[in-house]
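Sequence in, structure out.
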Amino acid sequence: MTTVTAPAAGRASAPAGTGAGALAGTGTLIRFGLRRDRVRIPVWVAALTLGTMSTVTEFKTLYSTAGERASAVSSMDSPAALAMTGPRHYLTDYNIGSMMGHQLIGFMAVLVGLMSVLIVTRHTRDEEETSRAELVRSTVVGHHAQLASALAVAAVANLALAALLTLSVLSAGVDGIATGEALLYGLTLAAIGLVFAGVAAITAQITAHTRGASGTALAVIGVAYVLRASGDVGNDALSWLSPIGWGQRTYVFVDNRWWPLLLCLALAALTAATGFVLSTRRDVSAGLRSSRLGRRTASDALTRPLGFALRLHRGTLLGFGAGLFLMGVMYGSILGEAADMVKDIEQIQEALEKIGGASLAESFASMIMVVIAVVAAVYVVMATLRPRAEESAGRAEPLLATGLSRDRWAGSHVAVALAGGTALLLVAGLGFGLSGAASVGDGGLVLQLVGAALAYAPALWVTVGVAVALFGWFPRAGTAAWIVPVYAFLVGYLGSILQFPDWMNNLSPFGHVPQLPAAGMSWTPVLVLTALAAALIRLGLAGFRRRDLETK
């Protein structure tokens, strides 16, 4: 007869090979996290790498001679330009490499920070919010294993990005760039990414909601960028308060300092350690900040599908609105200097001449308006795909089990995406117009630029239609809607500079929008795009009515 010994009370029997203590099971969770993000991380890394490669190619084309680089120095040596790029020290030796450090690190740091924040919050706070963390922790998993694995996955993504950026810079064929310089460029961005991964580890402990944790961490990224911009224009001490400023002060391809990376690594370690400590001060699925007590009864708006959808989208919409307004203000501030900035850059001059316009400022504004519209398109894709997230999380099922129809439920999110995207264009156009009018000295430019921004509304609506059609008929392929804004940026902005063939631009809905204020208003493409958007939305809602709902 075999004797079975029961485990001691209060102790779990650990399978062979598992570690003990607070980090038990970390290795397994790392492998699981990488398995779950086997598509997301490669897409992020590939997009950032390809963006760098395309920009380096653009630099080589636009600034192939010493005269063109000297002209770039004169155009960049202004407060508005330095706020958008980086510190003036890069201008002392402005070659293709130093252009990368000057113009790319600040912008890329924001994107790398966004990638890191989303990875950490996805594998920590989102797991708790969906109650999957309780199932994982019911096994032999240490208290700190989940956060440690999330940070490790973020570190893998950042190191992979650093490796690919190094290889891409070396393979770009730029004269004078050494291996150590290319490696410093890649590791600088990776170090900044690790800092914001640590920031996300803290915000994930503060709030009980994924969107709140992500939003707070993204606000920190925004503050870091503003401090960097303010320091580069005025008091240099402000830049030293920002990890983005630390990264830029490696002065890669100029002085090649390595020691600022130590500051980033120290802050990354400090923020990560703080996240671990704070995680012991709260319960699973709870946050350190207690939820605010709500009203005894819901407002009339929350009892209606549209009001409830607007409440769900409110934070994201306000964040994009503030960001686009500031983007418009920044672009408008350099509108008066556009002629000096591009006077010796033949490719941009040719692109602006192709756009037309009574003045170079109008042509330049028309070119920049594409970028603003693409950023607004990012919001409308996020908003339109929100019903898919609600469905996947099981929150749509109890709502649709009532008398609420599928058309009204999905249609409310679509309506918020349509109206919200249009409002973002209005806000961005207003910021662009006010700042641009002050820069140029022409008050009439305000209404012109607001109208130019709103002209892109039908293109945004088509983007919504594409996302709705995918959600309705092919919900698992809904993320393919991101192709629309990415393609629009590549062919609408970069394509005009690199002289892509016209047929490529015609494949994008943004390519058919009248390029106000440089060109005259044409109503035919606007009406056609509006009709196409309506047809796609109707098609998508019809598909949603006919397919099965994903249930939990």
